[in-house]
Amino acid sequence: MLAGVNRSASPFNPQLLGLDCSECGRAHDLSAPRSVCEACGKPLVARYDLARVRAEVLRDDLGRFGTDLWRYRAVLPFARDFAAVRLGEGGTPLLPLAETAADLGLAGLWLKDEAANPTQSFKARGLSLAVSGALAFGRNAIALPSAGNAGSAAAAYAAAAGIRCRITVPEDTPDIFAIEQRAFGAEVRTVPGTISDAGRALAGWAPSPEWWNVSTFREPFRLEGKKTLGYEIAEQCGWRLPDVILYPAGGGTGLVGMWQAFRELGELGWSQGAMPRLIAVQPEGCAPLVRAYADGAATVAAWEGARTVALGLRVPSPFAGALMLRAVHESGGSAVSVSEEELLDGMSELATGAGCLACPEGGATFAALRKLRASGEVKAKERVVIYNTGSGLKYPEAWRQALQRRDPAAAGART
């Protein structure tokens, strides 16, 4: 039986059949807290009775369920009467970039701007579900390593849930993130190196089972929160799926989550058109997925000497690398890298051309689109979605560099 949970009042959606291993396929029920596969240690993926969902839920009735990501609760893990932790996550705008589309010669271009989420990033989606999952499993303390935004979202949702939170962050993470996390009551430790080093440091400081690990793919429900990105894009496009989606891929939950969403939408019969080609974008200074894709590898090898101003993409050894590759291949997509200069210029172009103060990861997706239009991989007739995953206000040093490139004299001026 779940710790602290009464079987007669299960916290889980009755349409959630179980959790399957993404690698070996082993099925796991919900009779005990689940993190990764008990057989092989790989990520778990939720499996729903989609035929029953299709019979009981009408697509056109979603408007009755609010404007945040919980409007898709029929395909999320928790029962309708379970008190999920909510701060207004999801429901972010899909902004048409008509002039930029014309400049690039595209049939259509939209920007999914995730800065409108709580704590100003897309991480709110996954951490809302992960913290709710911790409560459903009877846990009262969470922990994770973070490059910034995930830790801030975890701290906020932990505070809202009334549970403890510990976070390890690389020591070069901008101070604003640790300030934000501590403001929410989280305990924060800085660690030399990358997020991989922060992950190793977390194990001794926040051991299981007291501390429930909510880091990327180490529990099954962050993926479910990121899955709603795909549902939202489909609905905001009138259920006619775009042709191409460019996504900044670090740990990969959003990339894999959208792939999962589009597969579910197809089974539900809610969407029109083929699955969008998912294009993973990484910086040249940390591009393990791009290298694996180019080499035709089935797994993603660790990247040595990772360096980039896009801290959310400085993930040298993604835990779910093989699953990320499957999402790219099975969607007919690809993986592309951009230079630091290109992503900084992408930030500037989104600011001046779209009124979006993008984070470095957002600048990377725009830079990748320019590169792929020039190569012809993205064609003129195609409808394209790019991402800004968080607010540029949290990256002052990146913006100093971007402004220096745009106008060296103005960047150094004081008013």
What's the SSE blueprint?
Elements: E1 16-21, E2 27-28, E3 44-48, H1 50-56, E4 94-96, H2 98-104, E5 108-113, H3 123-136, E6 141-145, H4 149-161, E7 164-170, H5 175-183, E8 187-191, H6 195-205, E9 212-213, H7 221-236, E10 244-248, H8 253-268, E11 277-283, H9 288-295, H10 321-330, E12 334-338, H11 340-354, H12 360-375, E13 383-388, H13 396-406, H14 408-411
Parallel strand pairs: 5-13, 6-7, 6-9, 7-8, 10-11, 10-13, 11-12
Antiparallel strand pairs: 1-2, 1-3, 4-5
Helix pairs in contact: 3-4, 3-7, 4-5, 7-8, 8-10, 11-12, 11-13
Q: Please work out how many helical segments DSSP would assign.
A: 14
Question: Which structural class do the helices and strands define?
Answer: alpha/beta
Oligomer designation: single chain
Give the topology string: H per helix, E per strand. EEEHEHEHEHEHEHEHEHEHHEHHEHH
Give the amount of beta strand, in percent. 15-25%
Report on the biggest sheet.
6 strands, mixed
Helix coverage percent: 25-40%
What's the Cα radius of gyration?
20 Å
Strand order across the biggest sheet? Answer: 4-5-13-10-11-12
Could you name the CATH topology of the domain at 94-120 and 221-408?
A: Rossmann fold
| Anisotropy-based shape | globular
Mean pLDDT comes to 95
Which second-level CATH architecture of the domain at 94-120 and 221-408 applies?
3-Layer(aba) Sandwich
Measure the end-to-end span. Answer: 63 Å
Q: Count the strands?
A: 13
Low-confidence stretches: 1-8
In the CATH scheme, the class of the domain at 94-120 and 221-408 would be Alpha Beta
